[in-house]
Amino acid sequence: MADQVSVAEVVAILADGGEIAFLDVREIVPFGDGHPLLAANIPLSRLELSIGARVPRLDTRIVLTDGGGGEAMIAESRLGQMGYADV
């Protein structure tokens, strides 16, 4: 698992043609107020319930964002415990 990546690194990941899940883990209202283009919303409160349907392969690259609230770090830990290997 990786820690934080820069905006430039995220842009490069999005542009490299590989599979990626770009997820904003904020709740729906903060997500709706503004989020990165192309980011899908899976609120932290529903992560374990929703991730399997949205990202079924455990080896999919996952980039998390949270708008600075710290939810992404919690989500990274939870996803690691669930077996996701490239967060």
Extended strand count = 3
Q: How much of the residues is beta strand, in percent?
A: 5-15%
Main sheet: strand order:
2-1-3
* Helix fraction bin: 40-55%
- What's the order of the H and E elements? HEHEHEH
Mean pLDDT: 86
The structural class is alpha/beta
Sketch the major β-sheet.
3 strands, parallel
Tell me what the structure shows:
The longest helix has 12 residues. Strand 1, helix 2 and strand 2 form a beta-alpha-beta unit. This protein has a three-stranded parallel beta sheet with strand order 2-1-3, with helices on both faces. It is globular. The protein is α/β, with parallel strands linked by helices and 87 residues long. The mean pLDDT is 86.
Features:
40% helix; 87 residues; alpha/beta; 3 strands; single chain; globular; 3-stranded parallel sheet
